[in-house]
Design goal:
Blueprint: E1 2-6, H1 11-15, H2 18-27, E2 32-37, H3 42-45, E3 53-56, H4 63-78, E4 83-86, H5 91-99, E5 104-108, E6 119-121, H6 132-137, H7 161-173, E7 181-186, H8 198-210, E8 215-220, H9 226-240, E9 247-248, H10 254-261, E10 266-270, H11 273-278, E11 285-289, H12 294-297, E12 307-311, H13 331-334, H14 338-358
Parallel strand pairs: 1-2, 1-4, 2-3, 4-5, 5-6, 7-8, 7-10, 8-9, 10-11, 11-12
Length: 359
């Protein structure tokens, strides 16, 4: 049997599909499993031991995009897939799934696209208090796969050995070694609705670093927000004084971020792709939620590992679709105080220390 998984676009969404890969391998141990992904999230599944093949869908614009898709469709048609599972549901993913010609094509019931599937599954409310992994798991029902369980099927990203060596070298170059406690603070998000204020991140970084001289704060951000990360680092250094390597912001790609978080004592960040990359490790996590709900996007992994959500609590406008802030003040984010985040981080660090002592 040949099975193709299709999940285009966002990093975090691809991370949330990795438990399904393991479940399919368990259900169909002899199947040939392929995964179609776009370049930005390819690092998430590269090296996944349960996949036989990773196919990269080019992402050009204009006429080139159409040419790429036609070539890709022909390649998928030649692949001879028996089952295709469209985990995305967008127009491009639906069309490519249909173009495979697979006898079994599973996707969500979506107006104007359901005809492209042999099995259309009801699409759950994206804002509801049900985890995204469980929602995608609905698509496995036609194949008789058992119910999801994070302790058995956690999110999974293989550590890239080359990325691990690169991270180790960068940390050494910054004067950061095994004697230091790494605190990863991710300060960017995919849109302003999930972006905690920069000043709040400065306060958290400063207080955590000042509380223990062994701590080193590693500020990370997406490529489009590297300048914002730099400003946060500069402001924290000015408040702290002392060695400049108390707060740093080395540039990292997705594979390097995975390697770094695997070495950290705590990860702090909002509901974005890097949070879910961190979830593939056992690092204690402090997750900040604004317009989204923890029930939907908390780390999907063994509950033995520390993970705490920090949010503004119930608000009439929360959750929202992140198109316009009806109160115009982003109160779901601005109501989260640095005190809340620092307190949660200190609890995470105590958990880490206790876990280290037990080893």
């Amino acid at each position: 049997m040949k099975i193709l998984l299709v999940r285009l676009r966002l990093l975090g969404d691809v991370v949330f599909t990795t438990p399904l890969i393991r479940a399919l391998r368990r259900k169909f141990p002899d199947a040939h499993l392929s995964y179609l992904v776009e370049p930005a999230a390819a690092a998430v599944i590269t090296g996944n031991p349960h996949l036989n093949e990773v196919i990269i869908a080019p992402k050009r614009r204009g006429i080139g995009r159409w040419a790429d898709d036609i070539r890709l469709a022909r390649r998928l048609r030649r692949g001879g897939y028996d089952v295709v599972i469209d985990l995305h549901g967008g127009p491009r993913a639906a069309w490519l799934s249909w173009a495979t010609g697979a006898a079994t094509r599973i996707g969500y019931t979506i107006t104007g696209r359901s005809w492209m599937y042999s099995h259309a599954v009801a699409r759950p409310d994206d804002l509801g208090p049900r985890h995204s992994v469980a929602k995608q798991w609905d698509l496995l029902a036609p194949l008789g796969v058992e119910s999801p369980d994070p302790s058995r099927d956690a999110v999974d990203i293989a550590e890239d050995p080359a990325a691990a060596l690169s991270v180790d070298a960068r940390l050494r170059a910054l004067g950061i070694g095994p004697e230091h406690t790494l605190v990863v603070v991710h300060v960017s998000a995919g849109n302003p609705f999930r972006r905690w204020p920069a000043e709040a991140f400065v306060a958290v970084a400063t207080r955590l670093a000042a509380a223990d001289d062994r701590r080193r704060i590693i500020v990370t951000a997406g490529p489009s927000e590297a300048d914002a990360a730099g400003r946060i680092v500069d402001a924290a250094r000015q408040r702290l004084g002392g060695p400049v390597n108390r707060v740093v912001d080395p540039p990292l790609d997705v594979a390097e971020l995975r390697a770094l978080t695997g070495r950290a004592a705590v990860y702090i960040g909002g509901d974005s792709g890097p949070l879910h990359v961190a979830s593939a490790t056992t690092v204690p996590i402090v997750a900040l939620f604004g317009p989204t709900l923890p029930e939907r996007s908390m780390p999907w992994r063994d509950p033995r590992w520390f993970a705490e959500a920090v949010d503004a609590g119930p608000l009439p406008c929360r959750p929202c679709r992140q198109r316009v802030c009806v109160t115009a003040d982003f109160r779901c984010l601005t109501s989260i105080s640095p005190d809340q985040v620092v307190d949660a981080a200190e609890r995470a660090l105590r958990f880490f220390d206790e876990a280290q002592e037990r080893q």
